[in-house]
């Protein structure tokens, strides 16, 4: 019992330590809540008085901002975009329309991007986690300035805006961004308001945020035929709004600025949140801004420049905490004097933030700012005020703004080193306890073949010091898996050769060799199911082929085979007296899963069945699942009374059944096949290891298989590859706890299943309760060493690399993945320890 308590101590302290490290590593920035006023717009440049009201005044009467969620750059620039959005592309050719390429910093999710556009500040990585529960923005922002200066704002679209700005809008109607299977109504609910607002003249700013494109990306990816039709729908809406703008201009209501932009892009797999080019590059189309067409490549700006630029266009004070620069490409028709004044005001405002840095006056950016102001003064005092000299001043201001912005962004992202070091100390502490309790007693008994796996743990941990190895981690696990199979094949072949010399060749050895060859062949196919990682994720894969409209028959067969295999495996592994009940229950669950996918139009529907947006099917699934749980509880009570030694075995068996059922419900249709294949492969491997008498490394091999299948599923270390659609299966309202649980189950399905299967096979191998408890505790310790030691090493790596170029785009997401992985497995292990304790109590009570 003491050993169990000591082990539970390591679980709890390990989880607490990694949570403490995350809290210290990810900076939470507390913004200055000062609100800019009209008095912040300068009346002097140094000691020279200027006519502020003449130099800084509104350029337009109305602004319409149309945000198309996940509108990535190539959706407007490549051949698909040109074909799907012909009207918009035709408009871009006109001199009064600007096409800019906006660069976005990760995290590339909606809430942080809205913050960047409206405040001019760079969101922190914590905003990625907070995206599911947006709090109102209390710092200065463009909407607050607009409302303060008597602009009436109306909004229709993603209700994230309403959470961030709950009191800003005169009229509004929010649509939820979290039902990713809704492609149509979510946008129709925005468009239906446009005609009514066109007949109203009581607003000056309209914001529309369309979600359908993002939803399609999450479910079917950016290359789906649905993307093209959605882009065409957006094109028609743009044409409709532009037509109304022309009418307004003819009737003297203008000038009007119409801005179309994406909040973030979309990865080739359909998700977003990471730092790939497709996620961090979006178009900004400004209709009503005179642009120079003398360039061939699009002008580039930062997304956070929008706050300062819109402030200048509307003649508003720039938000107090803004880091962005005014985009002069949208102000092409302004006189040089007004451009220079806008830049001076912008630079002065950013310099106010810059002065909060320690030793700011020793920074090169500070001197650049001073030099730019001096050039501006010289230009003002000169007789001719030449354009050529004026553009030198513009270049000086731009350079100073960019330098200050870069340093400001770098300095707001500060870690709490003391917390990080404390967490690392405790991680080392629990790692030492685990190593001392488990590995040292076993090391002397390890064979050469088994030592390879210990080296594998160390090699994997060290490899995480390279950003490329983090991005392509799946290659490491694929290499380990193939290497293990090849070594096993060599070991088996050697045995066959030795036996053949003695004229004693066993058929079992040949069978094992064939099984290993089948496993190698299966790996080659399964790794092609989903392209993952960063370098090759754009390559065609089986999933992409199956999700095409013309492959609907193939994906349907794929799903039927997967579900049939799951039903068959459940049938043959259950006790004969219960098989009939289990069969009917599993068929019912499988039918619900099949019908759930027909609602997304990914597989062939059943005739005469009317789809229900997967709500009804999922509800029936959970009712059947509840019946299964009650039935399983009844069986466990019988086992506890009649055959107490099998209580642990039956409990784990039911846990595996439940986990597979829920995972099957949440998986994408093309990933369903992974569940029965993983069950079969782990069965085969455990049999091979038992025959070769190398069961000591059973837990490690099963853990490796769990990781391999984790990557087969299409997961990676990019937050963009999280299958968001899995979180909303069957939901009718936004329920963050359930969504989070769904996402965890779907993401970590394979590792948890591998762990449970290992423990189940252990319970089959040991009849003695005392021996079984010792083996399970030993396996749990080894598993925790396998997880905790690399995480501990990674905390040292990420601390050393905290100023690395890819710290937020590569290393930080990996830390989040590993931390959640560890937390999930700790919960599962604690659950198993609880079941073991129940087995112990049953043994004591029923004697």
Automatic annotation (TrEMBL):
It is found in: Endoplasmic reticulum membrane. Pathway: Glycolipid biosynthesis; glycosylphosphatidylinositol-anchor biosynthesis. One of its GO terms (cellular component) is endoplasmic reticulum membrane. InterPro entries: Alkaline_phosphatase_core_sf (IPR017850), Phosphodiest/P_Trfase (IPR002591), PIG-G_N (IPR037674), PIGG/GPI7 (IPR039527), PIGG/GPI7_C (IPR045687). The chain crosses the membrane at residues 7-26, 418-436, 448-469, 475-490, 553-571, 583-599, 619-640, 647-666, 672-689, 696-713, 737-760, 781-800, 820-842. Gene3D superfamilies: Alkaline Phosphatase, subunit A. GO terms for biological process: GPI anchor biosynthetic process. Residues 442-833 form the GPI ethanolamine phosphate transferase 2 C-terminal domain. Signal peptide: none annotated. It is a multi-pass membrane protein. Its main location: endoplasmic reticulum. Keywords: Endoplasmic reticulum, Glycoprotein, GPI-anchor biosynthesis, Membrane, Transferase, Transmembrane, Transmembrane helix. The keyword Transmembrane helix applies. GO terms for molecular function: CP2 mannose-ethanolamine phosphotransferase activity. Belongs to the PIGG/PIGN/PIGO family. PIGG subfamily. This is GPI ethanolamine phosphate transferase 2 C-terminal domain-containing protein. It comes from Vespula vulgaris (Yellow jacket).
